[in-house]
Design goal:
The protein is mostly beta strands. Helix content is 12%, strand content 39%. A hairpin with a 2-residue loop joins β8 and β9. The radius of gyration is 28 Å and the shape is elongated.
């Protein structure tokens, strides 16, 4: 004869109707009461952390540039934030230097504007897959089929200047990576993870970051403008320390 236990639930299996209480016991009212109390306690603790905190600071994000092929996923909060950019054939227009023997050809695209404040960039990383960088025209009128150039992310957009590649604030978020095209397309390239925090004063004027490209030699680009298609991901981890 089957034994009935208070609070037990038969599972419908005739062969197992005599199984032990430990196997058959379902949650009773005491189990549910404790569960509700624990959830309530956890919620109270979470709420207590937010007392006196400006809700807009918790959810603050920057503004992504409007550009075909550029999308952003935001993670984290105003204290520690991660912004992941995905580039799907984002087109950068390359311009030859005005003094061809001495000036790089260059291209730039604004990616993001941080909230106003002192922006502490904690680290950044970029990955461009096989054929992630592609010259549209090539052939030497614009970018050569085998052009070599530096690509990186900086708080200042590259512009006409004497010299080649990137330097200083043109690459102070993601350091310059060397890209060598073959038949107008690139091998896969990846930046070293930048783990050195740097603070930028955007308390008066918000800080932008820019994807910058600079050729490494005069032979890498002719006199005509060209289009460089860029695909890959760029991840930036940052915080805003204050707005004054």
């Amino acid at each position: 004869m089957a034994v009935s236990y208070p609070g037990s639930v038969w599972n419908g299996d005739t062969d197992n109707r005599d199984m032990s209480l430990a196997q058959r016991k379902a949650p009773d009212w005491r189990d549910w009461k404790r569960l509700v109390e624990e959830v309530a306690a956890a919620q109270t603790q979470i709420d207590s952390y937010n007392v006196g905190v400006d809700a807009t600071a918790i959810d603050s994000v920057g503004a992504v540039a409007t550009k075909t092929g550029l999308t952003v996923v935001e993670k984290g909060n105003g204290a520690v934030h991660k912004t992941v950019f995905t580039l799907d054939e984002v087109e950068l227009i390359t311009t030859d230097g005005t003094d061809a023997p001495n000036d790089a050809a260059w291209a730039t695209q604004t990616l993001y504007t941080f909230p106003v404040g002192h922006v502490n960039i904690l680290g950044a990383h970029a990955v461009f897959p096989l054929a992630g960088l592609e010259a549209v025209t090539g052939g030497g009128g614009g970018l050569s089929d085998t052009a070599d150039f530096g690509i990186g992310v900086g708080t200042v957009a590259i512009a006409q200047a004497v010299g080649f590649g990137l330097a200083g604030t043109e690459e102070d978020v993601v350091a310059e990576m060397d890209c060598d095209l073959t038949s107008k397309t690139s091998d896969a390239i990846e930046s070293a993870a930048n783990g050195t925090a740097a603070t930028h004063d955007g308390s008066t004027s918000a800080i932008d970051i820019h994807l910058n490209v600079g050729t490494l030699d005069d032979a890498d680009h002719g006199a005509s403008a060209d289009v460089l298609k860029v695909s890959g991901t760029i991840t930036v981890v940052w915080s805003v320390l204050g707005d004054d």
